[in-house]
Amino acid sequence: MAKVSKKYAEAVKLFDAEALYEAKEAIELVKKAASAKFDETVEVAVRLGVDPRKQDQAVRGVVVLPHGTGKTKRVLVFAKGDKVREAEAAGADFVGDQDMINKIQQGWFDFDVCVATPDMMSEVGKLGRILGGKGLMPNPKAGTVTFDVAKAVQEIKAGKIEYRLDKAGQIHAPIGKVSFDDEKLAENFRALIDALVRAKPAAAKGIYLKNIAVSSTMGPAARVNTQTYR
């Protein structure tokens, strides 16, 4: 059995391992149990009743959290012409075309999200192996390949996150920081779960939301009652 710290062991005592909490109660417990010296991220893990091996049961999308994540993302936009000015005016941190591609090929990665206009994708596609391995490749499904670069940048800055089913059939996503008000975290939680429900594949059968857990970066998880969202 892996060793745990004294703080973690004390935090675990706050939770009932058999209980299924309502979302707001789970969030309150997670915040109370957080003991790190930094502002921990509050994270949600959802196990879905889908087969991740089947393409028609893939779950992937984006959602704008009403209160953001507590982290300001650095946005890189691949664009040219008037779209450069639009991206800059919207608050993009870095904007360019071939110059940015060259920097990335030389090992530069001081950004969190990439946006590209469709006419840039033939060049950006050459970075597929580099950006794809880091989960940074622009994708139409995530709204990061678009001519409306201003809207894309503004949504990312406002708290837009991408969720994607992993090989274990789970979704992991941040919903804010421990320093957030309980109500704000609860609203962000609800926005994420609502998005997942809307993204349910037609091919998915049986119980869709199997398990939901909320935790902080360094703390134990509280299980959420999924019946509320079925």
Please provide a written account of the structure.
By secondary structure, the chain is of the alpha/beta class. Helices cover 31% and strands 21% of the residues. The protein is built from eight helices and nine strands. The strands form three sheets. Strands 7-1-8-9 form a four-stranded antiparallel β-sheet, with helices on one face. Strands 4-3-5 form a three-stranded parallel β-sheet, sandwiched between helices. Strands 2-6 form a two-stranded antiparallel ribbon. Helix 2 (23-33) packs across helix 8 and helix 3 (82-90) packs parallel to helix 7 (149-158). It starts with 5 loop residues before the first helix and ends in a 6-residue tail after the last strand.
What's a quick, concise take on this entry?
This protein has 8 helices and 9 strands. It is α/β, with parallel strands linked by helices.
> Which percent bin holds the helix content?
25-40%
Helix-strand string: HHEEEHEHEHHHEEHEE
Rounded mean pLDDT is 94
Strand content: 15-25%
Form type? globular
What integer value in Å does the Rg equal?
A: 19 Å
Number of helical elements: 8
Task: Draw up the topology in text.
Layout: H1 6-12, H2 23-33, E1 41-48, E2 60-64, E3 75-78, H3 82-90, E4 94-96, H4 98-105, E5 113-116, H5 121-124, H6 128-132, H7 149-158, E6 160-164, E7 170-177, H8 182-198, E8 209-216, E9 221-224
Parallel strand pairs: 3-4, 3-5
Antiparallel strand pairs: 1-7, 1-8, 2-6, 8-9
